[in-house]
Amino acid sequence: MDPEIVQAMVGVLEAKDFSTAAHTWRVVLYTRALAEAAGLDDALIHRLTYAAALHDVGKIDVPDEILQKPGPLTPGEFEVMQTHTIRGHERLLAMGEDDPLLLSLVRHHHERWDGTGYPDRLRGDNIPIGPRFFSVIDSFDALTSVRPYRAEIGPDAAERAIDELATLSGTKYCAQAVALFTNLYRRGGLGWILDHFNDTCPVPEYTQLGSLHSTRDPSHATKEKYTLKL
Ligand SMILES: [Fe+2]
User: How far is the CA of 110 from the centre of ligand 1 (A)?
Assistant: First the structure.
């Protein structure tokens, strides 16, 4: 997909949901780091990072009063929120998008290994591998960032999030995905993203994504040396 279109769609989403900007960038960078750690080729990594950027694009169609609600959602509101997976998938299809990796990640990123997720209640290996890995990333970021319903996070949030992923490995999450993510975190390959892209920092534009420094070079795996090549 054209980076300008990605930027425009994410821009619309950010205008509706102010907590999204840094979240989206973090999951894009976690996705890239994980894909590189898994040894995927550049073309696949490129497609995956765009899919990560657009994973919640269906939230454009969720009413503001639900998206921006400061308190917990009612069951009825949660049902509407869940439709962002299907709405995003439909929106991309209507645009003529045909990359199965992008389409499946948008539709299935809330499926759970034990079949308790949504929208299609897929289970285990029936969940495509992209969203299976991405759900671990998305959950880790949700557990380590400020949300409308959780104003404060402690300094040990990342450790607690890793513990929670371990607890739910093999039930809610694919064990292989948790293992890869945890290994990368333990090797220090992810902390710089969490530290750098906090919820108040200015975030780059998606048109820069193609020239984003690779994290393959360990010299980039620190906050100090991280830069965007414009
Ligand atoms: Fe989502």
Answer: 6
Task: Give residue 134 CA to ligand 1 midpoint distance, Å.
Answer: 10
The answer for residues whose C-beta is within 8 angstroms of residue 145's C-beta and 6 or more apart is 19, 22, 23, 26, 153, 199
Greatest Cα pair distance, the chain, in angstroms, is 48
Residue 186 located in a structural domain: yes
Residue 229, domain member (yes or no)? no
Q: What is the whole-number distance in angstroms between the Cα of residue 42 and the centre of ligand 1?
A: 25
How many structural domains compose the chain? 1
Mean pLDDT, range 11-19, rounded to an integer: 76
In which domain, by residue range, is 186 found?
A: 3-220
206's CB contacts (< 8 A; 6+ apart) are 3, 6, 7, 10, 53
Whether residue 24 lies inside any domain: the answer is yes
pTM for this entry: 0.85
From the CA of 83, how far away is ligand 1's center (Å)? 9
In percent, how much of the chain has pLDDT > 70? 79
